[in-house]
Structure formats: C-alpha cells, structure tokens
C-alpha cells in the first residue's frame, strides 16, 4: 500500500529550481534513503512529502488524500506524519514526556491517554528513564530518541527523518537507524535524508538527487549488512 506519492513535483523559489519534476512512491513497510549533494533538493523533497510546503506544480498524496485538496494540512501533519529533524525542536520548558504528548494533546487527545501513549513511545525507543527530564538534561542521543518518540505517537504511517543522525556518534546513529528500520518493518513508510552511505545501507531503496532531479534510484537488499 502506497503511503506517500509525489507526482512530477516541482518547487521553485523565485529563480531557484529546488525540485524539477520528481515522482516517488513510498509504500508501507519501506525505508527509502534520499542522498545527494548539498542543495540538490533533499530537504525540499521531505518537506513536500510531509505537507510542510506546497509544490509549485505536481501533486502529493498522503494515504490517498491529495494535499492540494486538503484545507487543514496541519491536521494531516499531526495525524499521519511524524517528523524527525536535526534541529530537534524539543520545547525546553517541557519534560521529555510532555514534549512527546504535545502533538496528541493539540489533536484533542486527553492528557491521561496522551501521557500513557508518550510513555509507551519513549519505552519503544529505549528512553523511558528520561521521561521526567528536561531537554537540557539529556545527551544528544537521548534528545534524538525523544524526538523520534514524539514522531511515533498516534500511529502515524509516514515518518520523515532529515539527517536524524547528524550530531550523533556512530553507535548512537546506528541505534537511531535501527529504530527507523523497526518502524518501517512494523508498517510505516519512512523517508530518510542522509549523507552517510553506512546509514543508507539500512534502506530498501536509495534515491540520489542531483540539481533537483532523481539521478539514480537503486533497490538495495543488504540484509547481511544489518
Ligand atoms: N526558502 C527558500 N528560498 C530560496 N531558496 C531555497 C529555499 N529553500 C531551499 N532553497 C534552495 O533550493 C535548493 C535545494 O535546497 P534543499 O535544502 O532542499 O537542499 P538539500 O539537498 O537538502 O541541501 P543540504 O544537504 O545542504 O541540506 C538549494 O539551492 C536551496 O538554496
């Protein structure tokens, strides 16, 4: 089942062509890595796939809903899409658990249930022991786990990760990739932007962007590398 589909998507910023006619489908259960040089359009692709930005032309569909026809994009973002960015955007005045609860509470889920879900998501990423701590009291790897837990709550089917391992050491980066892989294996569609071939090796497919176009798309099966 296709979770996200981009059809001939372009995105222009004035005279800059950030994306030039990209088509891509990511199915449930798939982890797709997006690679390419700086400025090739990777973040633009991710933002469009998650409804954080709108294409200049072409279309984006998430779980069968054409985003061009959706009035409340924010609602789709909260219910269907989980984001993990390098700039983690954890709110400093909230504990780890409160950060994870927030999107669910914004969506009208009661506090008690949102808290139970948050603790479950934190346990899933191995961060339950930091639930009551504030972001500044956490290591980089712990913060990243909390950000992933926040992206996982509410059974969101599309997970978008933009260099989620950027600031982390190799061992912690591997753990984060393992989490994304596990999530894909459990039925999510995962799009991962990375510069690191070692992380791309966890993907089912790797697409290479160059100057806003897909230059190459490889299906890789590297079970033995995992
Ligand atoms: N808001 C914007 N206004 C103007 N130009 C933009 C904007 N966002 C992106 N661009 C341009 O679009 C192109 C693609 O940018 P994008 O951030 O998607 O690339 P990237 O592959 O993610 O790069 P990096 O690896 O450096 O993060 C670049 O030339 C960038 O300067």
Automatic annotation (TrEMBL):
CDD domains: ABC_MJ0796_LolCDE_FtsE. Keywords: ATP-binding, Nucleotide-binding, Transport. Transmembrane segments: none annotated. GO terms for molecular function: ATP binding; ATP hydrolysis activity; transmembrane transporter activity. It comes from Nonomuraea fuscirosea. InterPro entries: AAA+_ATPase, ABC_transporter-like_ATP-bd, ABC_transporter-like_CS, ABC_transpr_LolD-like, MacB-like_ATP-bd, P-loop_NTPase. Residues 4-222 form the ABC transporter domain. The lineage of its organism: Bacteria, Bacillati, Actinomycetota, Actinomycetes, Streptosporangiales. GO terms for cellular component: membrane protein complex; plasma membrane. This is Putative ABC transport system ATP-binding protein.
């Amino acid at each position: 089942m296709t979770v996200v589909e981009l059809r001939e998507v372009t995105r222009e910023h004035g005279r800059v062509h950030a994306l030039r006619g990209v088509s891509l489908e990511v199915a449930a259960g798939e982890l797709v890595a997006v690679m390419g040089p700086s400025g090739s359009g990777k973040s633009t692709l991710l933002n469009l796939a998650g409804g954080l930005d709108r294409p200049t032309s072409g279309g984006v569909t998430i779980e069968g809903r054409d985003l061009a026809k959706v009035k409340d994009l924010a609602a789709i973002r909260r219910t269907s899409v989980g984001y993990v960015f390098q700039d983690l955007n954890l709110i400093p005045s909230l504990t780890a658990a409160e950060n994870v609860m927030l999107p669910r509470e914004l969506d009208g889920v009661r506090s008690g249930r949102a808290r139970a879900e948050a603790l479950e998501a934190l346990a899933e990423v191995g961060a339950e022991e930091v639930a009551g701590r504030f972001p500044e009291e956490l290591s980089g790897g712990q913060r990243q786990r909390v950000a992933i837990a926040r992206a996982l709550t509410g059974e969101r089917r599309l997970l978008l990760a933009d260099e989620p391992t950027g600031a982390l050491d190799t061992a912690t980066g591997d753990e984060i990739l393992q989490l994304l892989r596990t999530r894909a294996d459990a039925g999510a569609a995962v799009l991962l932007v990375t510069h690191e071939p070692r992380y791309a090796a966890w993907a089912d497919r790797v697409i290479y962007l160059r100057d806003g176009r897909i230059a190459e798309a490889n299906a890789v099966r590297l079970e033995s590398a995992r």
